[in-house]
Design goal:
CATH topology: TIM Barrel
Largest sheet: 8 strands, parallel
CATH architecture: Alpha-Beta Barrel
Strand order of the largest sheet: 1-2-3-4-5-6-7-8
Distance between the termini: 59 Å
Helix content: 40-55%
Structural class: alpha/beta
Radius of gyration: 21 Å
Length: about 325
């Protein structure tokens, strides 16, 4: 084959490849935008509304030191990786949550915010009582809108710091985010009501069932009805005994929250799923919201309106 023939052959192959990619995109068939710490490759059946937000994910980047006390030490899951997830499910806003891996060193999270841009991203920090007011203000300027208390991981910030730190961030208009067991949430009901800022419960409040003797569900619903709390429909895989594809047990809890207070809920992935041995399918997780909230207007409220109100998206 001569040079001219080889050139024509390569141009033909290039044209075929372009046509195939274009065809996949138009028909919403399997895509090559799967993010690294995920499973599956197909796009979701549900179309994300404009300005839909993933209100709970993490970034892991080996450029930043791991806290010596950290138990969870996932592999890299960078801003570039996360953008592949956004391209796959269609969300355009996001909330970067400081993971326990970095302790109170928020540099990885803040670096991610600078890469995503203030127009599209917000952050949740982890701090202790040594943080200065100047540092809190700097984080606020960078896009941080809350502080997290992860009570389920070793080295977590102590619960006795919740009230003094809540008083300090109240002036910034921030909230506190709680990752705690259902039992911890139930036994601390008086504290959630006492602090001067909203309380956001991660991962369905780790409630296993919405009925019966589930005291935590009752505590959380009372807070929701009083405008004191929010719940993240996130980490659906964490407490589910049924598992994929339906996650029916956790889904029942999500549906119960949606019935109780759809105006106080946001949605999130928990990407890159740091506690999961088998990574969930991003598209499947997104499609589950359509099962829990069949009405498009309700999904838009959760994905767009509530997220904007809680995190200050313009």
């Amino acid at each position: 084959m001569g040079k001219s023939d080889r050139r024509k052959f390569m141009q033909l192959i290039s044209g075929v490849a372009t046509a195939c990619v274009s065809g996949f995109s138009k028909n919403r068939e399997p895509s090559q935008t799967t993010s690294v710490p995920s499973s599956g490759s197909k796009l979701p059946h549900t179309k994300a509304p404009p300005n839909a937000a993933d209100c709970h994910h993490h970034i892991y980047d080996s450029r930043f030191p791991i806290d010596p006390k950290a138990v969870l030490r996932p592999r890299n899951a960078t801003v570039a990786d996360y953008r592949l997830l956004q391209a796959r499910i269609g969300t355009t806003r996001n909330v970067v949550v400081q993971p326990s891996t970095y302790g109170v060193d928020n540099r990885c999270m803040l670096d991610a915010l600078s890469q995503f841009g203030l127009g599209r991203a917000r952050g949740i920090a982890v701090v202790n009582d040594s943080v200065s007011d100047a540092e809190l203000r700097r984080m606020d300027t960078a896009g941080v809108r809350g502080i997290r208390f992860n009570l389920l991981q070793a080295g977590a910030i102590r619960l006795d710091l919740l009230e003094p730190l809540s008083n300090r961030v109240a002036a910034l208009g921030w909230h506190v985010q709680i990752n705690a067991s259902a039992e911890q949430i139930a036994t601390s009901a008086a504290m959630w009501n006492r602090i001067p800022v909203p309380v956001v419960f991660d991962h369905l409040g780790h409630v296993s069932a919405p009925a019966g003797n589930n005291q935590a569900f009752g505590v959380i619903c009372n807070l929701l009805h009083n405008g004191k709390a929010w719940v993240k429909l996130s980490g659906i895989y964490i407490d589910s005994k049924v598992g994929p594809p339906s996650y029916a047990d956790a889904g029942a809890v999500a549906k119960a929250y949606i019935k109780e207070a759809p105006e106080r809920l946001v949605w999130g992935t928990d990407w890159p799923y740091p506690t999961a041995a088998q990574k969930p399918d991003d598209a499947l997780l997104f499609d589950l919201l359509a099962d829990w909230a069949p009405e498009e207007s309700k999904r838009t409220r959760i994905l767009v309106d509530n997220a904007a109100k809680l995190h200050g998206f313009a």
